[in-house]
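User: Can you recover a sequence for this backbone? Please restate the input before giving your answer.

Assistant: Of course. Working from this structure:
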């Protein structure tokens, strides 16, 4: 495909689901098709993913593509994803309750966070004569794959073609969400299992979880553009979470599908520029850099409300003062949002 860019909301990247590898690939191809159409995407728009599209992207023979697409389409209608939203009651200003994907700075009276379940498709079917899958995305998913202006993750579907594990596909998306930083924040064990698509009761023993899920995913992702390692986080002797670090795989030498000096339409950077991590990611922020971020203090704090307790009542300045040691620490600065964006911003 000429342009196999995938762009997803971070809400969707962080969602829990158990799509198979074939189903994830089918969704990816449909997202590409949705970007190619000359009309707004709604749950009434029918998209077609042909067997030839699968053959071209994943280098399988046509008979295999037919079988994979038919089986994936049969299962996809019953699949769902689970994602977190915040219900703002607005009791103090007499407004109707509203739903947001971003946590509020302060949880007010009546506010709540809820796990919602959404469907991937409104309709899906397999064309017997042409060997294609016809998909209408559900209204639940459309806001997470179209017209994204902020809080999104992007990658190329061609970067995933060598994966044979659905867990590798999901880990790759987690890595790409934090690609500008080179490491993820700590992800709780329960949350990581959900994001990777490990079903309840499956691989509940830590040894099996690592052997059957995590190590396979890390090994497969590390064959590509990034070398991935993980760190265990414990409470006492019990593992309660993991974090992932990654660097560009210099041994890969993968030929890009575009010139490395071409400016990307999503982030305004070239591939060469994205490959050079700024020094603050390995050394922490300097006092001068912290002062520069402080010029946009409110915006920075609002972008990092996930680090605040729901009962937080202090003002912006007090919260920011508490964060300064973390911003100076190379081990924690990478967990903050908007750092590079505000450092690049002209005052």
């Amino acid at each position: 495909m000429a342009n196999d860019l995938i762009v997803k909301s971070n809400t969707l990247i962080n969602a829990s689901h158990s799509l198979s590898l074939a189903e994830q690939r089918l969704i990816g191809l449909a997202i590409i098709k949705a970007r190619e159409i000359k009309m707004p995407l709604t749950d009434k728009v029918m998209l077609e993913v042909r067997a030839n599209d699968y053959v071209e992207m994943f280098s399988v023979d046509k008979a295999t593509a037919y079988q994979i697409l038919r089986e994936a389409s049969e299962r996809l209608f019953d699949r769902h994803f689970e994602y977190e939203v915040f219900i703002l009651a607005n009791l103090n200003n007499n407004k109707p309750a509203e739903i947001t994907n971003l946590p509020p700075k302060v949880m007010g009276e009546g506010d709540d966070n809820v796990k919602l379940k959404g469907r991937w498709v409104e309709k899906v079917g397999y064309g017997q004569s042409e060997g294609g899958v016809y998909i209408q995305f559900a209204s639940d998913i459309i806001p997470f794959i179209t017209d994204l202006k902020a809080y999104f993750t992007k990658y190329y579907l061609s970067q995933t073609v060598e994966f044979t594990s659905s867990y590798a596909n999901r880990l790759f998306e987690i890595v790409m969400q934090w690609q500008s930083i080179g490491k993820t924040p700590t992800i709780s064990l329960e949350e990581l299992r959900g994001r990777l698509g490990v079903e309840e009761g499956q691989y509940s023993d830590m040894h099996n979880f690592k052997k059957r899920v995590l190590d396979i995913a890390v090994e497969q992702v590390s064959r590509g553009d990034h070398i991935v390692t993980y760190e265990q986080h414990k409470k006492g002797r019990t593992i309660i979470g993991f974090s992932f670090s990654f660097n560009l795989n210099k041994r890969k030498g993968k030929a890009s599908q575009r010139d490395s000096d071409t400016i990307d339409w999503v982030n305004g950077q070239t591939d060469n520029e994205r490959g050079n991590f700024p020094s603050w990611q390995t050394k922490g922020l300097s006092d001068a850099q912290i002062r520069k971020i402080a010029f946009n203090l409110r915006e920075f704090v609002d972008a990092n409300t996930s680090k605040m307790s729901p009962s937080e009542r202090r003002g912006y300045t007090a919260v920011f003062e508490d964060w300064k040691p973390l911003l100076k620490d190379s081990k924690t600065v990478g967990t903050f949002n908007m750092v590079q964006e505000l450092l690049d911003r002209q005052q």
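That completes the design. The longest helix spans residues 21-36.
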